[in-house]
Design goal:
Flavocytochrome B2, Chain A, domain 1, binds protoporphyrin IX containing FE, alpha+beta, about 20% strand
Length: about 80
């Protein structure tokens, strides 16, 4: 899987279901988290961020502000905005 592609926010917004793939952004990076959805410790709340930025949600759920969480996210990076 390429990890150096350039995407638009519109591309990301088209990926918000398990069928189409679930993409999110963090800062200027793009992540395909489809395979992580079922592994998420917070359950399907993760789908609220599908197709968009995770920052507003992670601001509400500070449990994500840990190195190990960022390291999980990085495993799913597919490119940049
Ligand atoms: C917990 C990852 C998105 C809500 C966690 C944990 C991880 C994680 C690793 C466990 C942290 C720990 O206990 O050390 C992610 C990733 C996300 C994401 C990689 C996006 C790519 C979201 C979103 C929401 C959310 C969008 C809410 C709208 C929660 C909640 C917990 C949690 C409520 C606590 C679960 C519990 O301990 O009962 N997440 N998360 N997460 N997440 Fe997420």
């Amino acid at each position: 899987k390429p990890t150096n592609s350039i995407y638009t926010r519109q591309d990301v917004a088209k990926h918000k279901t398990l069928a189409d793939g679930v993409w999110v952004t963090y800062k200027t990076s793009v992540y395909d988290i489809t395979k992580f959805v079922d592994l998420h410790p917070g359950g399907d709340k993760i789908m609220l961020a599908a197709g968009g930025a995770i920052e507003p949600f992670w601001a509400m759920y500070a449990v994500h502000n840990q190195e190990h969480v960022y390291s999980i996210l990085e495993e799913y990076r597919i490119g940049e905005l």
